[in-house]
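Why do we care about 3D structure at all? Because function follows from shape, and shape follows, mostly, from sequence. That is the central idea of this module. The next example makes it concrete: a single protein chain, its amino acid sequence, and then its structure expressed as tokens.
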Amino acid sequence: MFLPLPCRWAVAESAVSGLLKDPVVKVLIVDDDANQGRSLAIGLRLEGFEVVTTLAAEAAMILSDRFEFDAAIVDLMLPGVNGIELARQLRERQPATRVLLTSAYHLSEAQLRKVDCGIIGFIPKPFQLDELVSFLNEKVREKIELKKAANSG
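And the structure:
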């Protein structure tokens, strides 16, 4: 099967970083700015996350069909399918995945509620890595606790 270039790159990168080894927390980063996505991926890897990056929403959907992600960090302003629509599609495919929107454009809580795309939050760019790591850890921990409760009940 032919995969678009951003997806081929993301799959190759994930295999090298050990995505298939059952890591603790798997994060998908979708950002059309390759430098920002790469910088964020490096920072999250240094914090112990397993990370896959891609430049396009279409590639993110292919990856979400093949791998389970604990969290996805999605840029709002993607070409083609925007971040809000991608968040909806990711949540349809993987309801337990925590989707976080990010953008240089600020959105209010009221605007985010209005679009109702299943996201867990919005962090405007630029953001501090430690702030993002804390937020991700909290939200992924909630997901794990909900999963444990569902399995025991």
